[in-house]
Every structure is written in structure tokens, then in C-alpha cells.
Here is the input.
Amino acid sequence: MARAVVLFTGGKDSVYALHAAVKEGYDVRVLATVIPHYKYSMLYHQPRFEALLAQAQSTGIPLETIGLYEPQNEVGALRHLFKRTKGEYGVEAVVMGAVKSLFQLRAFREAAESLGLKVYAPIWGRDELDYMRGLLRGGVEFIIVSITSMGIPHSMLGKVFDETDLEKLSKLSEIYGFNLSFEGGEAETLVINAPLFKYRLVVHGRRVTLSEFEGYFDIEKVALVKKGTGQPVKPQ
Here is the structure.
């Protein structure tokens, strides 16, 4: 059973990859997140740190992060993070949620393989509509937290995404040409519940519209509650 680190953003793809790795028999030792402190990174989402901590607590898996301040260091920062997790957790493989972006896959694979780490990308190359349906039917619940593409309704910001939303987006993607799984950065997501989560995330915030094609959900508070009861959980 290979010891693994999951390249984690808190979004749907990395959470799905985590579940696929566990199902495949990987021993997931740690979650690893690169946090860019500038907008429009070519490789990374801009996760909310409080949400990452809540997700890590919910899964019971340690979280390691690294801040990124210069775009030219995007691959170098990831290599440094992988080196740290290899040294501290003895990981042998990297799990990643890449779907369609060859640029992203190559960069992540380069960083991993330079340290002798194997790569597991369970979603790579899958049909996007089939993948998104499987994601929802598999119990991964998420909200859209940012939109940077024409055609994605801003009314979807902050609401739990469901199959009705997926069918609507599928039709809109044919009209506007955006990537249905958001692999091109058209939108970012935040997972609030999944089978491996011990607790559910409750997220409070407000929708902010910057233009016709850009908006985000301004997260003001993140809390954990016990599934089925809604009772709050103390942060660790």
C-alpha cells in the first residue's frame, strides 16, 4: 500500500481524487496545498485557509501548506512542498485531480517525478459530463466560489451544486464554450461534504459581481457541524 500525499485545493477535483485514491488502496498520509497570494495563477486555485483547515479536520488528515508570492516560482514551490511531505510523512506517491489540462498535469508530474514520487491522476481524460454526474451521485457536495467565464450564471455562486445545475451548465457550455468541469479556470469550487468527511462544512458569505463574466462568493464564516444533527464542532 503506497503512502501518498494528495495535492489538495478543497475543490471538487482534489476531493474526488482523494476518495479515488483511498478506494484504490493508497495510504493517504497528508494533504498538501499551494496558496498563491496573487490573482489568476496559471496552476493553482486560491483556497480559503479557514475552509482548508475545516476540511482537514473533517477528514482527520494532516494539512501542509506553502505560500506563493511570485508566479515564476509556481513549480518550484510545489517541488519544495512535495520534498517536505516526503521527508516528514514518507510519502511515495502524489495524488492529483487534474482532468483535462495537459499544462497542469505536466507541471505537477515534473515536480513529483523530480523527487522520485509516483503520480496517480484518477480523473485524467474522463468525459466531463460523466465525471460531473459521478461526482454528484457519489456524495461529493460542493459550492461554486468563483466564476471567471462568460455563460456561468452568478446565481450559482454559494449554492450547493446539484444535477439540475449540471444539466443547465451542460447546455450553456455548448453555447459559450467553457469547460464543463471548470478545468480551464472558468470557476472554482469548495467541497462542503463528502463520504470521507466526518463533519459537514457550513459556509456563510455573500455574492459579489465584478462584471458579466466575473464574480465570487465572499466567504465570511466557515463552521463544522455534525452530520445529521447540525450541532457545531469545536475547531482543533
Residues 74-89 form the longest helix (16 residues). Helices lie at 12-24, 49-59, 74-89, 102-113, 128-137, 163-176.
